[in-house]
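#lab-general

N.A. 3:47 PM
ok so I finally got the sequence cleaned up, no stray characters, all 226 residues accounted for. can someone with queue access submit it? mine expired

B.Y. 3:52 PM
send it over

N.A. 3:53 PM
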Amino acid sequence: MRCIRLSRSALVAFALVLLALSAQAQAQAPTSTDWSTYDEVFENGAQHAAWWDAGWTGIYAASLAIDAYQSSEASSRDDRFDARVGVVKSALALGGMLLDRQPHQAALVEYERLKARGELSGVQALGLQLAQEERARRGLDARFSSLVVNSLAGAVIAADGRGRDGAVNFATGMLINELQIWTQPNQASRAINRFQPARLSVGPVSLNGEYALLVSPQQIGATWRY
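B.Y. 4:20 PM
back already:
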C-alpha cells in the first residue's frame, strides 16, 4: 500500500476535498460504534489526565517536603546546599502542576454536551483541538521552562565549587521533566493518527484508500494511502 504525505500547506485543501466527498456519509446519523470510539478517547483521556495530575503533583509535593527537611537537617553542608536548591525547583514544579492542569477533563465535559446534542462534527473538531494541545505539551516550548530552571540550578551548584554535582543536578532535572512530558495523556493524538477508510471520487474515477490526520510533536499534516 502506497502513502502520500501532505504538508501543513496542503492540509487545508486535502481536508476540504475529504469534507466535500464525505458530505453524504456525514449526513447520516452517527452509529453507536462512532460514539463508543469517541467515548473511549475522551473518557480514557480524562481518567489518564486525572491520574497524571495527581501522581506528579504528589511527587513534587513529596520532593518539596523532603528537600525542605534536608535543607536544615542534613549532616553535610553540601547536602544542605543542594536541598535548598531542590526546594526552589520542587516549589516551581509544584506550582506549575497546580496552575496548568491537563485539558482533558474540560474536554470530556464539552464532549458530553456535544454528544447529547448529536453534534458529531463538533466532537470531531474538539478531538482535533485536544490532539493539538497534546502536541503542544510535547513540543519544544514545553521544555523551555525546565531548561531554564535546571540550568540555573546546575550553575548555582557549580558556582559553589562542585561542577560535577551541578551537571548531575541539571541532567537529573531534565530527565525527570522528559519523563513527565512523555507520560502525559495522548489518547486524542493516537485516535486521530489512525487511518480511516475513505473513497476518493473524481468524475467516473473512484479510488479506495485510507486517510489519517497526523499530529505529532514535530508536525501537523495528513496522509492518504491506497
